[in-house]
Amino acid sequence: MSDVATPTGLAGVLSGGDHKATGRLFIGFSFLFLVVAGVAGGLVGVEKYDPSDLDVLSPDSLIAAFTLHDVTAVFLFLLPLALGLAMYVVPLQVGAATIAFPRAATAAFWTWLLAGGLLLASYAIEGGPGGSDRNGVLLWLTAFGAVLVALGVATLCVVTTVLTLRCEGMHLERVPLFSWSVLAAGTIWLLSLPVLIGGVILLWLDVRYGVELLTGQAGIYTHLVWAFLPPQLFAYAVPALGIVGEVVPVFGRTSIARRNPLLITTAAVAVLGFGAWMFILPEAPDLTDEALFVGVNVVILLVLLGFTGAIAGAMRRGRVSLAAPVLGGLLGLLLILGGAAATAFGVLPFNDLLGTTWFSGAGHMVLGGASVVLLGGVYYWAPKIWGRVLPEGSGRLALFAAAAGLALLALPDLVTGLQGQDSRLPAEQTVESGWEILNAVSVAGGALLLLAVLLVLVGLAGALAGRDRQAPDDDPWQGMTLEWATSSPPPLGNFAEPPSVTSATPVFDDRQAREAEATV
Amino acid sequence: MATVTTESTGPTEPTETVTADPLMEELDSGPLIPELAAPPAPARPRVLVTGTVLGSAAAVMVFAAMLGFYLHTRAATIAEGDDWLPQGVTMPLTPANMALITLAMSAVIMQWAVYSIGNDDRRNTYIALGLAVLMGAAYINEIAFYYSQMGSLTVHDPVGMLIFGISGAHLVMAGIAMLFVLLMAFKTLGGQYSAHDREGIVAATVFWDVMIAVYAAIWLIIFVTK
Questions:
Q1: Contact: B65, A195; criterion CB under 8 Å
Q2: β-bridge partners, A462
Q3: Which of B46, B47, B49, B61 should we substitute to test contact with A (largest number of A Cβ atoms within 10 Å)?
Q4: Exposed (0-12), middle (13-18) or buried (19+): which is A518, by Cβ within 10 Å?
Q5: How many CB atoms lie within 10 A of CB B61?
Q6: pLDDT bucket at A463, cuts 50 / 70 / 90
Q7: ipTM summary value
């Protein structure tokens, strides 16, 4: 074990170097931004109730709320939460004493936080993609670019850790599923987010010098929207697949007999989720005319079905208890699968659904499903991260409510999308009868989701504040992978001795061997 | 201070008592400059090189996006029957060629640095790294001169915005590559890199070479085919 004292207090937070402190910060602040995304989504939802007229927001404010919701949900919540969990857990899972480039990881966090704050502030001065103030728009573009750079650096640190800092005996095929999913997703993020950065650079120049080549300020979002469309959405959801693959065997008390199908399907979703090629297609009349767009989204559904089949096989081998992490994992996986099915149906050219609420419903299912799985992951690794077990009852309730809220939010959108409701809610559009009720159900689903998130946050805050939630031991779930072979939370340096493994589930194997010995 | 008694080699010489300190003892017992202990073996696979490869791939994607948009816009403009370059804009090829030749030579020089540090030849390593940085500065100077040769092209023009934006972003990349090389040179000066572990120099060379490859793409797409 390292004989260096763990820095505590403000020094521990600011001085950096420990991947665990940085991971905790990413997780905590991503929740803060989730609340912002939820409120912005709620404002859009209020207007969605009656799309023929704007009740609360002006047209400009509606665009601002719409983009604020999208950008905050993906780049200030979902990706940072996944990266925060990865930053904390991945070095432990691969048996490393630290993360690769620890100070770069810390710098990435502070850059992300500062840039995220500036991004929100830019909306206050009429910035944002549809903003009327040029300086505000430039601030938004600068902040968004900085957020992307910070997330890219954080991703690079985690991916390099998996590639280079694995302990003795941990070949790549023995890497735990979550670390594998982060490796696969991170590689794709590292290749696709820079395309977004390239677009932001050109947009910044366009706005700064009044060129209007990229259709000026009004058209900014059309050059970024590919990052919020399938197949790119699926690349963001890949770490969620890794969490499902982690928790199901642990709570089923069984190891996965054949890991290769899970490894292959997880990596395949990441590769197919590379959507940066759509960057130069904003002027294309219809993406559904692109064979690649249609084909990739259909294949993703098939691959996800394969992944789900492999998980179902693992569940059949054991008796899975529906603890909060499993509940979140399975409900989230169902939502992702539902979103993939909706996407595969929606991209078929004869359906003519692009631009309707069908795709916002499908997107909510994919990203919302991934978020529910990640929340389940927070419940799973909470003993490791904070040394506390989060309340199980309220956890199950919160995760179930979150999944139900997402279903209520998304399913009415699918129905109204089929009837042609525009996803951008122009006030001029003709409103079909029955949309008001469906839109009201959708808004209620969003409210339920927000309540569920608040329940998770209350449970987390209560567990961190109360002494009675102390984790009973270092491995309360009887885990399988290396992060459970050290104390909870781990010391600086993570392990007393550099670990060495001979299988993908060393802690599980060790426990089995000890139990067999005790029986003899 | 320890006191030891030594006897002279001559049988008739009187016995002599001297006072010695432990340092003198140690020097007497071995060579004046002890051999250096072998440095620890570098971690495999190499963290810095792997991170640099990933970072370089990300940088390539930034330029791929911008060049892709350039090609897309140029093709759309020409398809509409318009000229791509505005009236009065000249783009002589000579400065762009000189910049490419400069960077190509710097690639060879970076390999010289890698070879030299592999042979523990520090003097040649420092010379090579210094020359590479000098050539990077020369490249920036050449592109700045090139800008002055482009006639009436301004950043307010769509074509100008794309050309200045993409090539300007590459100047930033060249600056980062120069800083990387300088940092690794200082680390080598501090003894961190040697024949046993030349990871930092290799990493800087990887990023430098990727920077050159990106310029080669810019040279072909923007400066040659215009």
A1: yes
A2: none
A3: B61
A4: exposed
A5: 21
A6: confident
A7: 0.91
